[in-house]
Amino acid sequence: MAAGLKTIITLSFVLAIGFLLVILSSALYQNYLPLLVVATYVLAPLPNFICQRCSNPDDFMESSGNAVVDFGRFCTGFLVVMGIGKRFCLKIHNQITFYDGGVLREFG
Q1: What span, in angstroms and rounded, lies between the C-alpha atoms of 101 and 35?
Q2: How far apart are CA 21 and CA 38, in angstroms?
Q3: SS3 (DSSP) at 72
Q4: Helix (H) or strand (E) holding 47
Q5: pLDDT for residue 69
Q6: Which of 28, 76, 83, 95 has its CA 20 to 30 A from that of 62?
Q7: CA-CA-CA-CA torsion for 16, 20, 26, 29, nearest 10 degrees?
Q8: What is the distance between the alpha carbons of residues 56 and 64, in angstroms, rounded to a whole number?
Q9: How many Å from the N-terminal Cα to the C-terminal Cα in the chain?
């Protein structure tokens, strides 16, 4: 196998384990608010996909830039950063505590 393929397989395995830890800790301690973080990460690539499909690749003015694709990338980046920040906001407002699965959620 190529080195790039091994890296992709390893990263997907780590991501799957992280999602599993978040889901299991939410179900174990019956605090389902951290699943919003998982939902944010699942929905993050959607704006990028939609905006790339909506852009017109046959445009005769290539040099003007593509605002639709840039907007999709901006929304995707916003959702990724929001997923990171949402975890900290939940922790600051004591929705996630250390003793009720906070360790599993942090590793997830």
Answers
A1: 13
A2: 11
A3: helix
A4: helix 45-54
A5: 86
A6: 76
A7: -150
A8: 13
A9: 28
Helix 35-43 to helix 3-29 angle (10° resolution) is 150
Q: Check whether 1 has a pLDDT greater than 70.
A: no
Share of the chain above pLDDT 90, in %: 19
CA distance 92 to 86: 10
Give pTM, 2 decimals. Answer: 0.72
For residue 99, the tally of other CB atoms under 10 A from its CB is: 7
Q: 65-86 pLDDT, tens per residue? A: 678 888 999 999 999 999 888 8
Spatial distance between the Cα atoms of 105 and 36, rounded to a whole number of angstroms: 12
Under a CB-based contact definition with an 8 Å cutoff, are residues 102 and 96 in contact?
Answer: yes
What six digits make up the tokens of 2? 């190529």
Asked if residue 57 has pLDDT above 70, the reply is no
Q: Identify whether the C-beta of residue 108 lies closer than 8 Å to the C-beta of residue 19.
A: yes
Residue of 101 and 44 predicted with greater confidence: 44
H helices then E strands: how many in the chain? 5, 0
